[in-house]
Design goal:
Length: 335
C-alpha cells in the first residue's frame, strides 16, 4: 500500500518528528531541550521558543533519515494535546502549514493514547484486550485497550503523576531535572533501607502526593541529626523512594489484572524507562502468568513515532482533522 505518515510531537520539552511506512518506523528523531535542567522543571516559555527553533531541522532530518522525499508523505499526524499549550501551538501550527503546502490531510493525535500505541512500533505487539500502565511526567493511568482506537481509563492518579513523584523527590535531594533517570542510576548503588508508606487508596486509582510529603518530613528530621544525611545516604534514599513508587505501580496493575481477568500487560510513558519497574513487571508477570510488553527506551519517553503510528490507524479508518483545529491542554484518553 505504501502509506507514508509524518508524525510530529511537541507537547512538552522534546521536539520530535518521525516517518513511518505501512506501520513500520523509518525514522524517529528527537531534539531534547537541555535548558530546563537549570530551572528544575520545564519552563513553558523556554520550551515553546525551543520548539520553534527545532521543528524545521527535526522534520528535515526525519525525512532525510527515512530516505524519502517530502512529496511521498500521505498525511501528517500531530499531537493536539494534552500538554503545554505554548509547546503544542508550535507543532500544531507547523503541521497545519506543512499539510496545506503539500496538499495532504491532517490527523490529530492524543499524546496519552499514542504512548499506549507505541507498543505497535515493533513486535512483539500486545493482543487485544490488554492493560497498559501509562506512567509519564504528567499522567499515571491504567488503560483498558480493546482496539487500536478503543481505550478506556480504568484507574488514574488523584494528584501527582509517578514521573512527578520522581522529579519532585529529585528536587528535595538537589538533583537536576528530570530526576527520574538520575534516581534510577543512583538507586542501583543503594539499598531500599528506608521505609516510606504505601498510600491506602481503594480501587485502581493512585496517589503520590503523600509520598512526597513523607519524604520531605523524613529528610527534614534526618538532617537535624546529620546535616550531611542526603549526601551520605543518597543512593539508599533513591533506592528506597524508587522501590516504593515501583511497588505502588505493580500492586495496582496486579489488582487491575485480577479484576479484569486480562493477562496481556504493557507499560508505557517516560517512567516505563525505569530499570526497577521493567524488571519488577517481568518478575511479577512470570509469577502470575502474564504476557508482558515493555517498550524499547526510545519509545518510552516522548517521541513522534508513537504519534505517527496512532495517525496510521486513524488514516486506515479515514479519520482526518480540519485546518480549523486548535491545540488542547487537556484531553481525556478515549474522549
Ligand atoms: O513520557 P515522558 O517523556 O513525558 C511526558 O509526557 O510527561 O515522561 C517524562 C517523565 C519524567 O518525569 C522523567 O523523570 C520520567 O519520565 N523518567 C523516568 C525515567 N526516565 C524518564 N523516571 C524514572 N526512571 C527513569 N529511568
Ligand atoms: Zn509523554
Amino acid at each position: 500500500m505504501n502509506t507514508v505518515i509524518l508524525g510530529i510531537e511537541s507537547s512538552c520539552d522534546d521536539t520530535s518528528a518521525a516517518i513511518i511506512r505501512d506501520g513500520e518506523v523509518l525514522s524517529n528523531c528527537v531534539a531534547n531541550q537541555e535548558a530546563h535542567r537549570l530551572y528544575g522543571g520545564v519552563v513553558p516559555e523556554v520550551a515553546s521558543r525551543a520548539h520553534q527553533k527545532n521543528i524545521i531541522p527535526v522534520v528535515d532530518l526525519a525525512i532525510k533519515k527515512a530516505g524519502i522525499d517530502k512529496r511521498q508523505v500521505d498525511a501528517i499526524a500531530f499531537t493536539r494535546g494534552p500538554g503545554l499549550i505554548g509547546s503544542l501551538i508550535v507543532g500544531v501550527s507547523f503541521a497545519k502549514a506543512y499539510a496545506l503546502s503539500l496538499g495532504i490531510p491532517l490527523i490529530e493525535v492524543n499524546h496519552m493514547e499514542a504512548h499506549v500505541l507505541a507498543h505497535f512500533a515493533e513486535p512483539p505487539r500486545p493482543a487485544f484486550p490488554f492493560l497498559c500502565l501509562t506512567v509519564s511526567g504528567g499522567h499515571t493511568q491504567i488503560v483498558l485497550v480493546r482496539g487500536h482506537l478503543d481505550m478506556e481509563v480504568i484507574g488514574q492518579t488523584l494528584d501527582d503523576a509517578a514521573g512527578e513523584a520522581f522529579d519532585k523527590t529529585g528536587k528535595l535531594l538537589g538533583l537536576d531535572y528530570p530526576a527520574g533517570p538520575i534516581i534510577d542510576r543512583l538507586a542501583q548503588k543503594g539499598r531500599p533501607v528506608f521505609d516510606f508508606p504505601e498510600p491506602q487508596i481503594p480501587g485502581l486509582d493512585f496517589s503520590f502526593s503523600g509520598l512526597k510529603t513523607a519524604i520531605l518530613y523524613f529528610l527534614q528530621k534526618q538532617k537535624q541529626d546529620d546535616p550531611d544525611f542526603i549526601r551520605n545516604y543518597m543512593a539508599d534514599i533513591c533506592a528506597s523512594v524508587q522501590s516504593r513508587i515501583v511497588s505502588i505501580l505493580i500492586n495496582k496493575i496486579s489488582l487491575a489484572a485480577e479484576e479484569t481477568g486480562i493477562r496481556e500487560i504493557a507499560i508505557a510513558g517516560g517512567v516505563s524507562a525505569n530499570s526497577e519497574l521493567r524488571s519488577a513487571l517481568e518478575k511479577t508477570g512470570a509469577e502470575k502468568g502474564w504476557n508482558t510488553y515493555i517498550p524499547k527506551f526510545e519509545y518510552c519517553t516522548d517521541n513522534a513515532a508513537m504519534i505517527a503510528i496512532t495517525g496510521y490507524y486513524k488514516y486506515l479508518k479515514g479519520t482526518f482533522t480540519s485546518q480549523e483545529v486548535e491545540p488542547v491542554a487537556r484531553w481525556k484518553v478515549g474522549g
